[in-house]
Design goal:
By secondary structure, the protein is of the alpha+beta class. It contains three helices and 13 strands, in the order H-E-E-E-E-E-E-H-E-E-E-E-E-E-H-E. It has two domains: 78 residues, Ribosomal protein L6 (Outer Surface Protein A, domain 3), CATH 3.90.930; 82 residues, Alpha-Beta Complex (Outer Surface Protein A, domain 3).
Length: 182
Amino acid sequence: MSRLGNKPIEIVKDVKVQLQNNSISVTGPKGQLVANVSRYITVEISEKEITLKRSNNEKFQRSVHGTTRANIANMIQGVTEGYSKKLELVGVGYRAEMKGKVLQLQLGFSHPIVFKAPNEIVVVSPTQTNITISGADKQLVGLVAAKIRSLRPPEPYKGKGVKYENEIIRRKAGKTAASAGK
């Protein structure tokens, strides 16, 4: 039995929640998010909280129950507080700069990389080696951060590349000099 799925979701003030045909819409100060709800889940919206119920105890329905509850809670937090991810560029000559709404990256290639983020996401480069990605949709913020990181993932020998702010890169030992007597 999903303990998380049975926990009610509190509706914060300034947030409006609407349910139409298995689609839930959450509107708040930071925007509006819409998600589809599984047909196995029944959503009940009262003035101060949202409760989710499933029709039976099959394994699939239990897993969808908890996931749906977590997604709706993330939507409510996203439209009130928002989400952000921070990236760091590590390496000589690696830098990022915003040119209008486009992020231009120098990552050690012979050409600059131009990255255009979706309209729902705000990308800011406060310094040449830091990038901040923020928005209301937790999944989209994570996707954009992962996409930028994948342009030059950190390598294990020197740690050069694009990494998350608190990410720890496991280092490998480099080559050692072979003995001259062989």
